[in-house]
Amino acid sequence: MELGIKGKKALVTGGATGIGEAICAELAREGVQVAFTSRHPESVERTLAKLGGRAQGHYGLVCDITLEGEPQRMAQRVLAEFGEPGIVVNNVGDTLSITDPLCPISDWRRVFRLNLEVHIETNNCFIPLMRQRRWGRIVNISAGASMENSGPVPYCSIKAAYSAYSRSMARVLAPDNIVMSAVLPGVVFTESGHWAKVMRERPEHAAKYLADRTVLNRFGRPEEISPMVVLLCSELASFCVGSIVPVEGGQARHYFNFDGI
Q: Which is the most buried residue in 27, 52, 174, 196, by most CB within 10 A?
């Protein structure tokens, strides 16, 4: 299938491990030049080498995108050292292990900052350039927790806002041929993720969760999420304005999956 994005440039935040790394690899296989961010220098170097390095047009940037003003500084460096990305994938997100529904408002702000605010700031840096070119793709990696009660209250609440932002902002951008969409991954195992720790420390809990909550009785793999993300980054996604796409192996129990407008 010809996706029509060979030679384009993409930015993937949190792209050095897990789902983000799989997205970077999938984009690179389609001939896209990829810039990605991570907080960890060793992860940046490893993933950059896997992609083929700067010689293939790829670019890795070490930054903590949650710091005040960091999305703007990151964007400036990307534009100066890599070029204008026509594709942006906002992949950063986590519960931050904040599970108390009565946690201090400062904890709510931390979850909000990581799971929504930095994505809005990142998008606002690149949308004006996409409008000038009259082409762009923005894919927001939200979560199944945005559509049902599945996880800590702060995380579910902010992810719900993230999916709502994706849906409503998409209508604003559509006249400029910029397609914003969101992907909702199910439970995915990554080497440095939450479930890797659970498998080490509480394997019986992981087994019970898979038996009770999943249809396939297994974790998803990053490589099972990335193809849908890259499809939404492509020319073929021109009618996917505001699409909210679950990729979760039948795990979710809600009925209201939004697709299109």
A: 27
| DSSP-based helix, strand, coil % in the chain, nearest 5 | 50, 15, 35
Residue 254 has a pLDDT of: 75
The ranges assigned to domains in the chain are: 9-193+221-246
**Distance, first Cα to last Cα, the chain:** 25
In this prediction the pTM is: 0.94
State how far the Cα of 74 lies from the Cα of 14, in Å rounded to an integer. Answer: 12
Residue 17 burial by Cβ neighbours in a 10 Å radius (0-12, 13-18, 19+)? buried
Residues 6+ apart with CB under 8 A from 68: none
Domain 9-193+221-246, CATH = 3.40.50.720
Residue 79 parent element (H or E): helix 70-81
Is the pLDDT reported for residue 49 higher than 50? Answer: yes
SS3 185: strand
